[in-house]
Design goal:
Transferase(Phosphotransferase), domain 1, alpha+beta, 305 residues, three-stranded antiparallel sheet
Length: 305
């Protein structure tokens, strides 16, 4: 089979990734390509996998994600410019973020037997929570429903070469009355779920905040929190929610960092941070007390600066 060189009027530069329902390409608009306002020449094309394009449920999920994300405008969220059908293909045009996923950076530090600097971890956490604060406060649809991302994990956080931190992949997001999966269905990445999610209970914004807490715990310690050899084992670990103190794994961390992570990972959601804004304020105080920048300067050790 000949390699594809074009999709929907865009010249393909190379395939970046393949996921459960879609594949992602770096692409460049041709001079004849119809583009939306503000859309640059270099973009990402997300295509629903050909094996799913005749399945109404998968098509709906893909189109729903596009309809949602095209309305989101935030510096810490990957922008979607438009969604359209070209022949039999369903395509989404998104912002190109030149860099790596946070998961890639985590793995690189782990392989080097090193831990990400606490200042960088704190700044990444603040940027992620700014994105979550925006989507949790956004009002979507006629009923003014709010968004729950449901799949906050390091693979869905991008770090650009310029120091931008951006949340992506709203494929399993939940918006009351607009996007909703089956009741009690497991949607997302198990090792970054909240206990209520693996128990099949209704979830809200606090499940996203729990996921952010897991990410902070892992970055501060350099170790996975809810790792397992099977989905069932990971589900049991999330359900039991036994969280070791980050200071036991990294004694150099300040007490306040441990307190913030401990609060974010309470099994009882009423005992966690209730909003992303509250979580952000705590991390900003942590940074200020330790003289850590809350700007891109915090990422210099990661960017080679």
């Amino acid at each position: 089979m000949a390699q594809e060189t074009e999709l929907g009027g865009y010249q393909l530069v190379g395939r970046l990734a393949v996921g459960g329902m879609a594949e992602v390409y770096q692409a460049k608009a041709r001079s004849t390509t119809q583009r939306s306002a503000g859309e640059p020449d270099d973009v990402v094309i997300k295509r629903l996998l050909p094996s799913y394009r005749n399945d109404a449920a998968w098509v709906k999920q893909f189109v729903d994600e596009a309809k949602l994300t095209v309305r989101l405008r935030h510096a810490n969220i990957v922008r979607t410019f438009r969604c359209f059908k070209a022949g039999s293909d369903y395509l989404m045009v998104q912002e190109l973020v030149s860099g790596r996923t946070l998961q890639y950076m985590q793995d690189a530090f782990r392989q080097a037997n090193a831990i990400m600097p606490a200042s960088a971890t704190t700044f990444i956490g603040i940027c992620l929570l700014r994105a979550l604060d925006y989507i949790h406060r956004a009002k979507i649809g006629e009923n003014g429903s709010t968004i729950v991302h449901r799949d906050v994990n390091p693979a869905n956080i991008l770090l650009s070469v310029g120091g931008d931190v951006k949340l992506t992949d709203f494929g399993v997001a939940e918006v009351e009355g607009v996007m909703r999966g089956e009741s009690g269905a497991l949607r997302g990445t198990i090792s970054y779920m909240a206990p209520e999610a693996v128990l099949g209970q209704a979830i809200d914004n606090r499940a996203d905040l729990f996921a952010a807490g897991i990410i902070l715990h892992e970055l501060f310690t350099g170790q996975r929190l809810f790792a397992g050899n099977s989905e069932m084992e990971m589900m049991h670990k999330v359900r039991d929610c036994r969280v070791p103190s980050i200071q036991k794994l990294n004694p150099e961390l300040p007490d306040m960092a441990a307190a913030i992570v401990r609060k974010s990972l309470q099994p009882d959601r009423t005992q966690r941070f209730q909003t992303a804004a509250e979580f952000i304020r705590s991390l900003e105080v942590l940074a200020r007390r330790n003289g850590w920048p809350v700007t891109v300067d915090a990422l210099k050790p990661l960017l080679g600066g």
